Amino acid sequence: MATNQVENTLDVVGVGNAIVDVLAEVDDDFIGRHGLSKGGMTLVDTERAVELYAAMPPGLEESGGSAANTMVGVASFGGRAAYIGKVADDFLGEVFRREMRHVGVDFGVPGVGGAEPTARCLIQVTPDAQRTMNTYLGISAHLTVKEIDDDLVASAAHLYCEGYLWDTEEAKGAIRHAMDVAHAARRTVSLTLSDGFCVERHREEWLELLADRVDVVFANASEICSLFEVDEVDQAADAVASEVDLAFVTLGKHGSMVVAGRDRIRIEADEFEAVVDTTGAGDLYAAGVLFGLSRGADLPHAARLGSIAAAEAISHLGARPGRLLSSVATSILG
User: Fold this and answer.
1) pLDDT of residue 289 exceeding 90
2) Is residue 26 part of a domain?
3) Is 99 contained in some domain?
4) Pairing of strands 60-64, 119-125
5) What is this structure's pTM?
6) Domain assignment of residue 81, yes or no
């Protein structure tokens, strides 16, 4: 794994799709009526986005995107976080920028005028707390190398890259560039697999990334098994251990597993009263882990922070922490 040779000024910088989330609670009939793929993430065009938005009941609207949620989680723990993503020079772009800064995340990429609008994700949450996402990527998918601030990336102990962004050649080039900058600065590079459908689309390219550009992988059990085309998570753990230094695999109600070489560290799920919405659980788990690692925590303590953050995320509607997590960090890390 890469090691820092100079003092860093940030804990984590994330790269991802800058999206405004629209969340609403619906029943299973809504999913069926509108032909939605329950539990997955589907890319939609402008017409479909307008149609679904009009059909959804009133809900919650807030800045989102997977890596952005993770950076907000890092900041909630008291960490120093920054974000790189692309928004338009429009109302939603300004909403996104203002909200990120309000919660303490450095976001300085200017809005782009005269182009596609800022992205939005329409999220339907069913009574079983599953979230179905329909995403219009807008300008966010067109992140380019010129939007990557090399000095910002080099200043962070960890670079965290979102798999959802891996859908255009220009965005792929931007991510590869950011990874190369981070490694040149002796920083650690993480990739989150994001979604099973993403894995199916990008398996071969991601296996190449793991081989030469990625140090840490974040995934759930289904995603990591799909990546290596195996049936059991233990088989996937053996496969990923041969490619990267660390992997953090979430296992739902069974907690998570840390893969470090030959070691398999099991972490119990944090206790919670009820599951309201699973949106952002993996994002917040990664936030806890990355914050812990940036503070020198050992692997069990870092994963424990992730488990606590994930439990907090699923206890309410929305993908962001409902409370500051800094007190949790103090109780776990001292």
Assistant:
1) yes
2) no
3) yes
4) unpaired
5) 0.87
6) yes
